[in-house]
Specification:
9 helices; binds zinc ion; Nucleotidyltransferase, domain 5; Arc Repressor Mutant, subunit A; 21% strand
Length: 317
């Protein structure tokens, strides 16, 4: 039951009973004992989300002060940080912009962000139990060291993980080692899109065992969850759909290869193709348009109505 609460945050007794497969009576005895000992607490009720007129159910969670979890997402343009307590409430969050900064600078900006947010909020990291770091792909995960399923605990001490990571020699490994050294907590590093796939499988609308996740953004990425575990593949690159070659003579990709899916199907690539084919809005002087630059609905070249900032193929819904 404690594991279920650690993985899912606050839950009603009914949800816990379903998740652990215990009878309500047995569960009631256990929760009563844990509440008495202070290991779990009542955080709120489900009144806000409840439909119908029944009595709101109490939601139980691990004592929020008993643990903290840090998530760090290094994107191409910014680093985002979130710290959650043991009840999965986010107690600290923020971001810092950069543009194509080298890894040492990204790391410095991340630590500076953490220091600033900590000073402003008074949140310190004495109960930190784990750190998850997302990095942009392509990123080669090392099965068994850097990736773990949500129901598992790290099988290496922070010290071991830091040493292994430092020996790896990649920029991402240096970041992992730096976080492990600074916070003395287990650090997991993986492609941020693969981690998003895992989060969707575990915390999505309904948690699922098997999931194929596809993300089309500045790049194209994906993640594969099978049997509740994030798949890394034999080469550690499972889910890197964006760097599959589809046009051998195509444009050069930022990974160094030519004609990757990403050079054709990422959002910037799609916009570039539209612009090359004359599909840009006739009123826009720059492409893609700045958000908020124009909001009046008008007819695009394709004949559909929409805001110029949407592009004529995406009319206002
Ligand atoms: Zn590529």
């Amino acid at each position: 039951m404690l594991r279920v609460l650690r993985e899912h945050g606050a839950m009603s007794r009914r949800q816990i009973a379903l998740a652990v497969g215990l009878s309500r009576t047995t569960l009631s005895e256990i929760t009563g004992s844990l509440l008495q000992r202070g290991a779990i607490v009542v955080v709120d009720t489900d009144a806000a989300k409840r439909e119908g007129s029944g009595r709101p159910a109490e939601r139980l969670a691990l004592d929020p002060a008993s643990g903290q979890f840090m998530g760090v997402d290094f994107g191409h343009r910014r680093v985002r940080l979130a710290v959650a307590d043991a009840s999965h409430e986010i107690v600290l969050s923020g971001s810092e912009r950069y543009y194509d900064a080298p890894w040492p600078l990204r790391l410095e900006l991340a630590f500076r962000l953490i220091d600033r947010l900590s000073a402003e909020s008074g949140v310190h990291f004495g109960a930190l139990q784990g750190i998850g770091i997302g990095v942009p792909g392509p990123y080669r995960a090392t099965p068994g060291v850097l990736v773990m399923a949500p129901h598992e605990t790290p099988h290496e001490t922070p010290h071991d993980a830091a040493e292994d990571a430092a020996e790896d020699g990649t920029p991402e490994a240096s970041v992992q080692a730096a976080f492990a050294k600074r916070f003395g907590a287990p650090v997991i590093v993986d492609n941020n899109t693969r981690l998003a796939a895992l989060a969707e499988a575990v915390f999505g609308r309904s948690s699922v065992e098997n999931l194929l996740y596809l993300r089309i953004s500045d790049g194209v990425g994906g993640g594969l969850v099978v049997g509740g575990r994030l798949v890394t593949g034999s080469s550690g690159l499972a889910g890197e759909l964006g760097h599959v070659t589809v046009a051998p003579d195509g444009l050069e990709c930022r990974c160094g290869k030519r004609g990757c899916v990403e050079t054709l199907a990422s959002v910037p690539a799609i916009l570039r193709t539209c612009r090359d084919r004359g599909l840009a809005s006739p009123t826009s002087t720059a492409w893609p348009p700045r958000s908020g630059a124009a909001t009046r609905s008008r007819t695009g070249r394709c004949g559909r109505r929409g805001r110029p900032s949407d592009g004529c193929w995406a009319p206002r819904r």
